[in-house]
Predict the 3D structure of the following.
Amino acid sequence: MENQLLSMPKNVNIGLSYLIWPIALITVLVERKKAATRDDRVMLWTAVFTAAIGSIVWILGVVCLVFAIIAAIHAFKGEFEAVKIPFITDIVAKRVH
């Protein structure tokens, strides 16, 4: 149970979150007190903010999409330490408790 988020394996949930941001938002809101650790919440909020920045500034959207796909591949493999999006992960990590 501790390796699952929203009844999915953790790596599948976080990988899908980078590709489909509503999954990240739902996961972080539902699992924030239960199963999600701080590191999980940082990755989930990073997925949401990556999608937000990509949709606001469309030129950055392409760059954000590339980083999100790379992060999703690492997450699907279970390599959570390698899941970092420049600038966004650092900003989110300072804000998430």
Remarks:
- The radius of gyration is 12 Å.
- The chain has a mean pLDDT of 88.
- Strands lie at 4-5, 8-9.
